[in-house]
């Protein structure tokens, strides 16, 4: 359990007190800006004063908690040599983790990796502690910069569920975890995260915060595993690996082949078959043409839209019915909705 604090005594004391009685290991996370604009315009401090405040704050809490993390706020807009000096000072004072944030999401991935390599070369003491990255998404590069950080030696990454955070947000935890998992052969990392809970946790956080998840968001968006294009649907019906690099069931999610204006004949036939509808080639051709006409004017189309009552097109009417309609009480009823076709 961690508590965040500025270098002020009242903040540091409050952080330590907040952790009292914690059942897990305790950590105070101290942060202090190191970029010229922050030191001059926000803090009104000279570089030597920043170094001394870092030393004081870390040493003030080091023997009161299990771990101390120190962050050089706005590190990526700071002089690497000065960042290295502050890091060395914090480590000597007792810091066990050093975090180098891209506070305003300014870095490009190659720049970010080069910055971390340079600071590590200037401060060999970093090899004795955990090196962390904390990336913001102002340019849409938070996840890319986080992965670049891992490649440059970071052993801790700070991210948030659904990418929530200040301004444009932080690196999305689910995207970082799955990138490390899918590309483990290249990145060589295992987070140990139980990915089966990713879908559920994403939905829970969305409900609790009131922030809707973007429909086409990677990993947890409603369309992340929805294949609508006809060519893609045809490939998916033959082998899911043709257009899918992640098994959504691993995340507690499902793959869908939604019916839309880009859907092809193969997916439409499969939708009808999964709904228990037995159509002749002529009936299928007629229904498909009606479907395409409807799909041109709607974002999504269901089989109910195509078949007004359905029964006249169904050889075995007791296998399919509209919700609330009549059907055999002894047969298994499979509606389009139940077949996951909407």
Write the CATH architecture name of the domain at 2-158: Alpha-Beta Barrel
Could you estimate the helical fraction of the residues in percent? 25-40%
Order of helices and strands: EHEHHEHEHEHEHHHHHHH
Q: Name the shape in a single word.
A: elongated
Uncertain spans, ≥5 residues at pLDDT below 50?
309-342
Order of strands, widest sheet: 1-2-3-4-5-6
* CATH C-level label of the domain at 2-158: Alpha Beta
What is the name of the CATH topology of the domain at 2-158? TIM Barrel
Total number of helical segments?
Answer: 13
Query: In percent terms, what proportion of residues is strand?
Result: 5-15%
Spell out the CATH superfamily of the domain at 2-158: Aldolase class I
Number of beta strands: 6
**Sheet/helix structural class:** alpha/beta
First-residue to last-residue Cα separation: 43 Å
Could you give a short description of this structure?
The protein has 342 residues and is of the alpha/beta class. Among the domains are: 2-158, Alpha-Beta Barrel (TIM Barrel); 258-319, no CATH class.
Task: Name the descriptors.
342 residues; alpha/beta; TIM Barrel; 13 helices; disordered C terminus
């Amino acid at each position: 359990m961690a508590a965040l604090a500025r270098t002020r005594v009242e903040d540091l004391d409050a952080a330590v007190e907040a952790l009292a009685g914690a059942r897990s290991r305790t950590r105070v996370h101290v942060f202090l800006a190191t970029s010229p604009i922050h030191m001059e315009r926000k803090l009104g401090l000279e570089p030597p004063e920043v170094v001394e405040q870092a030393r004081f704050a870390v040493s003030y809490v080091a023997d009161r908690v299990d771990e101390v993390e120190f962050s050089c706020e706005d590190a990526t807009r700071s002089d690497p040599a000065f960042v290295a000096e502050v890091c060395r000072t914090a480590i000597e004072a007792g810091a066990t983790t050093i975090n180098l944030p891209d506070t305003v999401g300014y870095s490009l991935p190659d720049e970010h990796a080069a910055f971390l390599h340079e600071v590590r070369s200037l401060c060999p003491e970093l090899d004795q502690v955990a090196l962390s990255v904390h990336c913001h998404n102002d340019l849409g590069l938070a996840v890319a910069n986080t992965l670049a950080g891992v490649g440059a030696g970071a052993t801790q990454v700070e991210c948030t569920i659904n990418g929530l955070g200040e301004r444009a947000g932080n690196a999305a935890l689910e995207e970082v975890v799955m990138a490390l998992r899918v590309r483990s052969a290249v990145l060589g990392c295992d987070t140990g995260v139980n990915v089966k809970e990713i879908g559920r946790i994403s939905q829970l956080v969305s409900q609790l915060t009131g922030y809707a998840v973007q429909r086409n968001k990677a990993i947890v968006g409603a369309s992340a595993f929805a294949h609508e294009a006809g060519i893609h649907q045809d490939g998916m019906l033959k082998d899911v690996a043709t257009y899918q690099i992640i098994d959504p069931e691993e995340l507690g999610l499902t793959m869908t082949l939604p019916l839309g204006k880009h859907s092809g004949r193969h997916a439409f036939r499969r939708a009808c078959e999964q709904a228990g509808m037995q159509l002749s080639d002529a009936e299928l051709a007629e229904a498909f043409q009606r479907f395409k006409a409807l799909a041109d004017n709607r974002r999504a189309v269901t089989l109910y839209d195509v078949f007004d009552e359905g029964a006249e097109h169904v050889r075995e009417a007791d296998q399919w019915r509209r919700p609330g309609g009549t059907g055999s009480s002894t047969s298994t009823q499979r509606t389009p909705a139940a077949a996951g076709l909407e």
